[in-house]
Amino acid sequence: MSINRREFVSWMSLGFVITSVVGCNQTTGQSSGTNDTETPPESPSNSSQGFQAVGTVEELEKKGTLTDDMMSVIVLRSPNGELIALNNTCPHRGCAVSPAPEGETLDCPCHGSRFSIRGKVLQGPATTDLPTYEVKTEDNQILVKVA
């Protein structure tokens, strides 16, 4: 079956129109018959200030630390009970640090870097401290502001 030039242009025009209509519906947020629902936004007190939940106070007390791999965060308590939130990625080669068994330092399992629980380099090869983040509790949730 062959198609002449006029039929070809007609089919191409029809395809263009259909594509334009579908693209227009997606741009304007109109649905094509499906019942799409938006995800509800986070509570205003958290999202407007840039805080993200990493766990509950009970989880921290039970485990000793909380980690969120998506945000690269570790939360722990200082000896005086203060909450501390740090980036848990070693600045040397990007491995995740974790608390040492005695709980007084954060150690990198890859190359032996050691950090204080406040993120200060105690032993290399890392040469820069772990970034610290603002942390707070609200409604039993531990919230960290990473940005």
What does this structure look like?
It is a single chain. With 147 residues, the protein is of the alpha+beta class. It has 2 domains: 34 residues; 98 residues, 3-layer Sandwich (Rieske Iron-sulfur Protein), CATH 2.102.10. 24% of the residues lie in helices and 29% in strands. It is built from 3 helices and 10 strands. The chain has a 6-stranded antiparallel β-sheet with strand order 1-10-9-4-3-2. A 4-stranded antiparallel β-sheet has the order 5-6-7-8, with no helix packed on it. The longest helix is centred in the N-terminal third of the chain and has 24 residues. The protein is elongated and about 80 Å long. The protein starts with a helix and ends with a strand. The relative contact order is 0.15. About 16% of the residues have low confidence.
